[in-house]
Amino acid sequence: MALQLGDIAPDFEADTTAGPLHFHDWLGSSWGVLFSHPKNYTPVCTTELGYTAKLKPEFDKRNVKAIGLSVDKLADHEGWSHDIEETQGTALNFPLIADPDFKVANLYGMIHPNASDRFTVRSVFVIDPNKKIRLTLTYPASTGRNFDEILRVIDSLQLTDQYKVATPVNWKQGEDVIIVPAVTGEDAKKLFPQGWKEIKPYLRVVAQPKG
Ligand code: BEZ
C-alpha cells in the first residue's frame, strides 16, 4: 500500500554524494524533505536542485534537512553536481542519493509504472522529528516543483505542532491563522489570552503566534 500521512518514513541505507548514510540516523532530531528526480542530466531536475541548494538558510532556520534521490549511479551524480553549480550558481549542499537498483524508490513508491517503469515521478515526503510522514506530493516528470510551497507547508505544520493553529487558504507568513477545531473555548482562552475573532463557532481567527 502507498505510504500515507502519519506513517513512519521507511528507514534505509544508501550511498549519497555526501557519503553513505543510514536515513533515520542522518535525520536525527531534524525535519526532513526527501524528494526524487526522474533522472540525472535533465533540465528540470537541474533547476530544482540548484534552487533547493539556495534555500539552505531557510531549511536551517526551520531545522529541516533536505535530501534528493535519483536512480543513477554515484559517479554520475558527481559529474552532474558540477553542471548544477555551473548553471544554477550554487553547489549542492545536501546529499543526493544514488539509487541505481531502485531500492529506496520502491520503498517510497516513487516509481509509478503507468507513467514510467524506468524513472521516478517527482515525489516529495516531508518527515517530522518523530519520523512521521507529514506531507506527500507527486508531480509529473515534466513539471518542476515549487519549493517555496514546501517551505510554506513546513511553516504551517510547525505552527500547528507548536501553537494548535491551522493555516487558511493561500496563507503566507505573518498572516492570521485559525484555532484548530479540537481546542475548546476554555482552552483557547488560556492559549490565546489576547482573544480571537469568532466568525463562526468553528472559524476562530487569531494573529499568527510568533515563533
Ligand atoms: C527533466 O527533469 O527535465 C525532465 C524529466 C523527464 C521528462 C521531462 C523533463
Biggest β-sheet: strands ordered side by side in the sheet: 2-1-5-4-3-6-7
Strand-and-helix sequence, N→C?
A: EEHEHHEHEHEEHEEHEE
Residue runs with pLDDT of under 50 for 5 or more positions: none
Small-molecule components bound: benzoic acid
What summary fits the major beta sheet?
A: 7 strands, mixed
What is the distance, rounded to the nearest whole angstrom, between the alpha carbons of the first and last residues? 36 Å
Strand content: 15-25%
Verbal overview:
By secondary structure, the chain is an alpha+beta fold. The chain is 32% helix and 23% strand. It is built from seven helices and eleven strands. A seven-stranded mixed beta sheet has the order 2-1-5-4-3-6-7. Strands 8-9-11-10 form a four-stranded antiparallel beta sheet. Helix 2 crosses helix 4. The relative contact order is 0.15. The structure holds benzoic acid (BEZ). Benzoic acid (BEZ) binds next to helix 2.
Salient structural properties:
single chain, 211 residues, alpha+beta, seven-stranded mixed β-sheet, four-stranded antiparallel β-sheet, binds benzoic acid
